[in-house]
Amino acid sequence: MRNAEIGIRDVQMELWIWRHLGIRLPGDWEMLQYSLKMESGRCAFADRYGFRFEMTWRRVDGPPDFDRMLSDYQAKLTEDGMENGHRITNAGIDGLKGTMNGDTITRFGRYAAGESCLVELVFPWPDGRDKELEREVLESFQEVPAYADGCRRWRAFGMDAKVPARLTLEGCRAEPALTEWSFVDKHHRTVLRCARRGMVKEWMNESVHSWLEREVRPDARPPAHWRHEQRGGHAVDRVEGRALPQGWLRRKRHLQSEAWICQGDGRLYSWIAENAADMPSEPLRCCGEG
After folding, report:
1. Is the N or C terminus of the chain more exposed, i.e. has fewer CB atoms within 10 Å?
2. Is the pTM of this model over 0.70?
3. Which residue in 190, 167, 170, 173 sits closest to 182, CA to CA?
């Protein structure tokens, strides 16, 4: 029945951007596994029935010979237990189809030239292959270039971040009511932390301004500059000043931060940046794709 449901699905496709690679997937597919490594890694997505999609990447020196690569890969998968393996094509992309442990699996390879990455897109089909959904996902795959100002976009777990290219994703915490990202430069002098908190009505009994003041704890000397403004239908509280020094002989760090409750999903969004003179005006968005 699941395949029939997919065939008549009315699920909106959602954009995910991870490691400068973008893909559109059904809105009920969630990322359950992810990697922070740029050289090689994997993201896996599932719905309530099980895993539905996997994207892996590996940095390479140049474009691969796909014909030879697929032949070698097919031989290896056959040794690993794949049955009925053969070449397929969908959306103009060559791939492999076979059966592993009784389930149909299709695999496709893409080369991301700008990122010098070999990318594999894998679809497990426990209820039978859906070629139309497969085609739609494959056609959506893209490299996501930098903005004109050099920033890079990350979009996952309900957050949409615009991050200076010199910062890399160091940490990710993804829980049902809390998502946090930490971006840092190579010397850990600049930090950008983005967060999305749910169940706000159950735990938040103060104003956004009061919450943000406790969260960032700006130094009182000199006084921090606070601002409250309406932006995109949201009431945004912003603070800019100095962060309290931590430990001995630590210099005060320039601090910027904003927080607001999204009128669309009711969640509390916030970002905190330290020592980031090149931070864009809106490093975090909550709704819309822009």
Report:
1. N
2. yes
3. 170
